[in-house]
């Protein structure tokens, strides 16, 4: 297990370019299984979860060519279904959450797929019912083997239908959509997730020959087609990384310009950090955060305490609440952080409390943060990164803290942030990988 030694208290200064979006990449990479023709994808982040998914695709027989550091061409013209029965596949499937999205494309194109319980963050219950109920509605036969946690689906020919999802699952919507594009007839997915990740997938599938309408809404209508062809696709910048950099700039009092953010795709993210008191300027498509010694949390019109909570898109993504929470610890004022979706994502606050933050963990979903207004700096300590976003929140805390911190288990951060130590050191951070 690798660790970061972080010397805190430095102000950072400079420009940073966000990586391509992790959660979009996991969907888009699975979609290459839908065609035998070449698909070229650019702005692919070089991070653990994405590289693991690329290895899984290679195991399945997908031909992978790296044209540039962030650009690959994939050709799924010789997929090996027997690979689904190998130990290597089981290990790869269990390692990441994104592996679940091979099921829809494999089912649609080859009539069968299976998967062990996928990995990903241990942040609470992460059920897959929405995915498999959706496949069943399209006519697939589903089996679950509880002894080895294996999910299997088979179908001769999927048939389009109307379905109302029990929840607007992000990966569930992507998975069902990728099955429906090759089904016979029309599928309507109501209560569909509509994150930019899903919108990007829809646009890519349409370029491959799919007929999807309702993109960006919670009702997707898909007219099935017989086959799909190759295409080119470019990933959006990672909105979670952009939010993390905004939080980092505020906590360390740094002046940072985040380049090429595709600001219209960020939804409520800039607004949320502005409500925490962070000043920012939109310069073309860049976000400039000036150095700020103090920032003050907004209140509601009636003076009551600001509540930052997650919601399905276009609400605030749950993946940024850990960063919002850490930012609030040095703001002037009080905020309630309410993580509605996941029940184990706020426990990392005990480390922030050890660092000197004033936080009351009200219950597994809610924490009240009383900001120090930068009068009392956090103290460097030794801590472990429990999940990807808590990991980055602790890194931000350590960079702002007085003294040295050690963060263990940084593989969790590497799952989603490309060369984070190198990129932050280039603008003045002191992070050593040990
Ligand atoms: C690889 C990937 O893309 N991972 C993202 C994806 O995970 P993933 O697709 O696994 O998450 P889901 O959207 O399925 O659901 C996330 C959690 O929220 C709950 N839920 C979901 C929808 C809803 O309307 N109500 C509700 O309570 C679910 O029960 C679950 O506990 O979306 C999550 C929610 O944005 C993000 O945190 C993950 O980073
Ligand atoms: C929860 C996340 O990832 P995953 O779904 O891959 O575990 C995340 O990206 O914050």
UniProtKB/TrEMBL annotation:
Pathway: Cell wall biogenesis; peptidoglycan biosynthesis
Enzyme nomenclature, EC number: 2.5.1.7
Residues annotated as binding phosphoenolpyruvate: 22-23
Domain of life: Bacteria
CDD domains listed in its UniProt record: UdpNAET (cd01555)
Alphabetic keyword roster: Cell cycle, Cell division, Cell shape, Cell wall biogenesis/degradation, Cytoplasm, Peptidoglycan synthesis, Transferase
Main location: cytoplasm
GO molecular-function terms, A-Z: UDP-N-acetylglucosamine 1-carboxyvinyltransferase activity
Boundaries of every Enolpyruvate transferase domain copy: 8-421
Presence of the UniProt keyword Cell cycle in the record: yes
Locations listed in the record: Cytoplasm
Top-level enzyme category: transferase
Active site as annotated: 121 (proton donor)
Family, as annotated: Belongs to the EPSP synthase family. MurA subfamily.
Described purpose of this protein according to its UniProt entry: Cell wall formation. Adds enolpyruvyl to UDP-N-acetylglucosamine.
Annotated protein name in UniProt: UDP-N-acetylglucosamine 1-carboxyvinyltransferase
Source organism: Pontibacter populi
Recorded name of the encoding gene: murA
């Amino acid at each position: 297990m690798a660790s970061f030694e972080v010397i805190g208290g430095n102000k950072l200064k400079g420009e940073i370019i966000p990586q391509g979006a992790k959660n979009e990449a996991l969907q888009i990479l699975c979609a290459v299984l839908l065609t035998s023709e070449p698909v070229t994808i650019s702005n692919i982040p070089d991070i653990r979860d994405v590289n693991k998914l690329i290895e899984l695709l290679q195991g399945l027989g997908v031909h992978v060519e790296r044209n540039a550091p962030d650009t690959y061409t994939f050709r799924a013209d010789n997929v090996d279904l027997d690979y689904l029965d190998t130990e290597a596949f089981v290990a790869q499937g269990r390692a990441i959450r994104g592996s679940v999205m091979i099921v829809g494309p494999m089912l649609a194109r080859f009539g069968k797929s299976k998967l062990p319980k996928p990995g990903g963050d241990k942040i609470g219950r992460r059920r897959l019912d929405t995915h498999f109920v959706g496949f069943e509605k399209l006519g697939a036969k589903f089996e679950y083997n509880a002894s080895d946690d294996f999910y299997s689906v088979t179908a001769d020919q999927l048939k389009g239908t109307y379905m109302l999802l029990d929840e607007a699952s992000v990966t569930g919507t992507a998975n069902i959509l990728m099955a429906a594009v090759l089904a016979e007839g029309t599928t309507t997915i109501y209560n569909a997730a509509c994150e930019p990740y899903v919108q990007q997938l829809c646009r890519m599938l349409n370029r491959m020959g799919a007929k999807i309408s309702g993109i960006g809404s919670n009702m997707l209508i898909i007219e099935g087609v017989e086959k799909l062809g190759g295409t080119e696709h470019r990933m959006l910048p990672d909105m979670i990384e952009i939010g993390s950099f905004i939080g980092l700039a505020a906590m360390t009092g740094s002046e940072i310009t985040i380049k090429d953010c595709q600001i219209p795709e960020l939804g409520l993210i800039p607004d949320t950090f502005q409500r925490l008191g962070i000043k920012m300027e939109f310069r073309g498509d860049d976000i400039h955060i000036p150095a700020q010694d103090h920032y003050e949390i907004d209140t509601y019109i009636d003076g009551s305490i600001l509540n930052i909570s997650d919601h399905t898109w276009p609400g605030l993504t749950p993946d940024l609440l850990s960063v919002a929470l850490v930012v609030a610890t040095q703001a002037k004022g009080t905020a309630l952080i309410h993580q509605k979706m996941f029940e184990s994502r706020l426990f990392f606050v005990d480390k922030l409390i050890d660092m000197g933050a004033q936080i009351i963990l009200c219950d597994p979903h809610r924490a009240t943060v009383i900001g120090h207004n930068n009068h009392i700096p956090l103290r460097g300590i030794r801590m472990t990164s429990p999940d990807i976003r808590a990991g980055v929140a602790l890194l931000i805390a350590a960079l702002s803290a007085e003294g040295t911190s050690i963060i263990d288990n940084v593989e969790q951060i590497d799952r989603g942030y490309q060369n984070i130590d190198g990129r932050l050191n280039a603008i003045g951070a002191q992070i050593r990988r040990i």
